[in-house]
Design a protein that fits this description.
By secondary structure, the protein is of the alpha+beta class. It has helices at about 50-60, 100-110, and strands at about 1-5, 20, 35-40, 70-75, 80-90, 90-95, 115-120, 125, 125-130. The strands form three sheets. A five-stranded antiparallel sheet has the order 4-5-6-1-7, covered by helices on one side.
Length: about 140
């Protein structure tokens, strides 16, 4: 089980409506002080940002979302085992029996999003994860 974090997740979301903001302090264009900026991407602090990030991520993971929980993604592999991805805002857990499948998915995600690889999962959302070996599995 591996853990990942998406850097600046909300900035990956695309806006579906026109949103304008005042020029931020330090970025005011001389002679155009009364002008505004039109946002092209979602920003932290916008109420739309979490939803737009989720829609962007979900479109990347097309066809693998669980019908029981919208933040669980899975895929059955050729050998009949599964690989799972659990998403909580910008935190992810990836679990599979085959480490090469985990690494392949991590590479795919990193090619699309700016990711921080946190390695083997130890703690997520305040929950400590302990690895237990089970004989015969």
């Amino acid at each position: 089980m591996e853990q990942l974090d998406v850097k600046t997740a909300f900035l990956h979301g695309n806006l579906e409506e026109e949103i304008y903001i005042q020029q931020p302090e330090g970025f005011v264009v001389p002679g155009k002080e009364n002008h505004v900026y039109r946002l092209k991407k979602s920003l932290y602090g916008l109420k739309q940002s979490p939803r737009q990030w989720y829609k962007r991520f979900d479109s990347f993971m097309v066809g693998s979302r669980s019908s029981y929980d919208n933040c669980v993604y899975f895929q059955k592999t050729s050998d009949g085992s599964f690989i799972y991805l659990l998403l909580y805002v910008d935190d992810m857990l990836i679990a599979a029996r085959d480490k090469s499948l985990v690494n392949k998915l991590k590479t795919q995600l990193s090619s699309e999003f700016d990711m921080k690889d946190l390695g083997p999962a130890k703690i997520i959302l305040g929950i400590e994860i302990n690895k237990v070996e089970i004989c015969g599995l």
